[in-house]
Amino acid sequence: MNDLAQTTAAPIVSARGLRKHFGRTEILHGLDFDIPAGRIYGLVGHNGAGKTTTLNALLGLTSYEGTVRVLGEDPYQKRASLMKNVAFISDVASLPRFLRVRELFALLTNIHPNFDQAKARGFLEGTDVKMEARIKNLSKGMIAQLHLAVVMAIDAKLLVLDEPTLGLDITYRKRFYRRLLEDYMTEERTLLITTHQVDEIEFMLSDIMFIRDGELILHMQMETVSSKFSQVLVRPDQVAAATALGPIYSETRFGQTAMVFDGVDRDRLAQFGDVTTPTLSDLFVALMQRGPAK
Amino acid sequence: MSQFNDSQPIFVQIGERIADMILSKTTKEGEALPSVRQISADLSVNPLTVTRAYQSLVDIGVVESRRGMGMFVAEGGHQRLLAHERQKFLTEEWPRVMARLAALDLDPTQLLKQGGKDE
Question: In Å, how far is B85's CA from the nearest CA of chain A?
């Protein structure tokens, strides 16, 4: 078996000093990151933190300062050619509402060189989305399924999903992610997802990025997250001793104190109470309140 | 709600589930195990995590990876896994059980005589 974690090839996405201004206001303050192939990246941040602006820069949908390369190309200059290999579902996902599904597929066959109509139809088998249905008559969940079928039928090396499951019920959300893992992910393909329901995709991710006020405050492999950060449910008589080790976050709820530690040995923490790995949402809350992690 | 406990890495927990399938002979020697993709989709976990779980079983000769075919229980894999799990039980779990018995002032010989039943 080849070791998938050891990717030496060029990154799929690379950003250096990525900045964006809207008027005089700087929205992104110089982001640096690489995204290698074969990985599933989560980009998490509050509303207005700069997630969508970052994605738009990668997709060539907005101008920026700094250097961005997607599959080796400048997305703003080479947007048209990049779109052969990059697919995107936005949180304001729109498909032409007046078309029938069949007509949409015919249109895409004409305009997108890498759209495989047979594949798209295959993805819709077993769903309630019928070829003759008009898009405007589909439910939100069905539109999401249709959209996913479309982007998966494009043989894209990079798939960017901006809040893809917004407004979908839990069953549809699960089905959506299942589809992605079953039919899209391979070693050569890369997925970049933003979502507020981060706990739902936590185990799917290989890497996580937290963005706060236009800065990346965390960018690491999930494996590193679980070895670096620990959460302890501290016994009442141990609170003072545990606090002395400098938790990055502490919260008392219902008489129980939970603390999050960064880089403190787990064996040392075990004397204070049960040690676990914080969930991504717990970690997010903890890190949003302190300076950039390094 | 999570299908995993949060005290052990996910790949370890997935590895244990695969090991259980082999120990219970749900999947016998020479038979195919679920693909990385299928487990990944079933559990909503990263494919690399599943690969890593399989790798740990490949490393001890319990599972073999056949190129382009997927994962199979190796010949002699059941026996090797059994030996491995017994060793793990004796070095990791058994001392804890003994310590617990001592803490509760229970006599193991007496317990065995009762066959695990309450008195």
Answer: 23
Nearest to B48 among A4, A177, A277 (CB): A4
Residues from chain B that touch A203, judged by Cβ atoms under 8 A, are 4, 10, 43-46, 49
User: Does the ipTM surpass 0.85?
Assistant: no
Name the minimum distance, in Å, from the CA of B34 to any CA of chain A: 13
C-alpha separations of B40 from A120, A186, A195, A231, B9 in Å: 22, 11, 20, 26, 15
User: What residue has token string 């317990």?
Assistant: B111
With contact defined as beta carbons under 8 Å apart, do A238 and A252 qualify?
Answer: no
Model's pTM, two decimal places?
Answer: 0.85
Among chain A residues, CA nearest to B3: A203
Chain segment A115-165, per-residue pLDDT in tens: 999 999 998 988 899 999 999 999 888 888 898 899 889 989 999 999 888
The CATH number of residue B26's host domain is 1.10.10.10
> Which residue range(s) make up the domain with B26?
1-119
Q: DSSP class of residue B22?
A: H
Determine which helix (DSSP H) or strand (DSSP E) holds A262, and give its type and residue range: strand A256-262
Identify the closest residue of chain B to A227 by CA–CA distance: B9
The token pair that represents B114 in the structure block = 């009762």
